[in-house]
């Protein structure tokens, strides 16, 4: 979508995974359920304060090191929701995301883009699919990278992450009524692109009401 519009792409999920990866490497990442977040808070705050993140075309660098290929590991996947629920992490990422958007037009993807980070975005889309379909796609993605994970395991992780993200206190996931809903369950990638491009070309801007 970003390529077709000539915009920059901002993958905010990769940003949170990069923070999670850095916390894991530093030995201060919270457990998957976040039960020890308060205990590990000082360590995480110190690591984040000294962390440098750079976003380039489809790559993420942390402290000068390309970590892109380490962001989809199981330990990152299992903890990213707990990290993303931390208010100090979300605030730091929001500032960085808005700085990126201030530099040039972007296509941003993320679970709080239309509700918190860019509530006044010109076009807002709530892109969804069933948990089963998302698990199927994720398993196929893993296979392409040479990693085989059971469908049941991936599905359980997706369902749990949805539950966690929808019930967190800070910036929970929900459908913003001003965002156009696009259910991609039975759609191809090209069909999804065409549907969203139609919204852009038809001038169907998000309601500011």
Structure description:
The chain has a single domain (2-201), classed as 3-Layer(aba) Sandwich (Rossmann fold), CATH 3.40.50. It is 52% helix and 12% strand. The protein contains 9 helices and 7 strands. The protein has helices spanning 2-5, 12-26, 37-49, 74-84, 87-103, 113-117, 131-144, 151-167, 189-201; strands at residues 8-11, 53-56, 59-62, 65-66, 106-109, 125-128, 180-183. It has a 3-stranded antiparallel β-sheet with strand order 2-3-4, covered by helices on one side. Strands 1-5 form a two-stranded parallel sheet.
Provide the helix percentage: 40-55%
Q: Cα-atom Rg, whole angstroms? A: 17 Å
CATH homologous superfamily - what is it?
A: P-loop containing nucleotide triphosphate hydrolases
Spans of at least 5 consecutive residues with low confidence: none
**For the report, how would you describe the main beta sheet?**
3 strands, antiparallel
String of helices and strands: HEHHEEEHHEHEHHEH
Work out the strand percent. 5-15%
- What is the typical, i.e. mean, pLDDT? 93
CATH topology: Rossmann fold
The CA-CA distance between the termini, in Å, is 26 Å
The best one-word shape is globular
- The CATH architecture designation is 3-Layer(aba) Sandwich
Number of domains: 1
Number of separate helices: 9
Strand order of the largest sheet: 2-3-4
- The CATH class name reads Alpha Beta
Total strands: the figure is 7
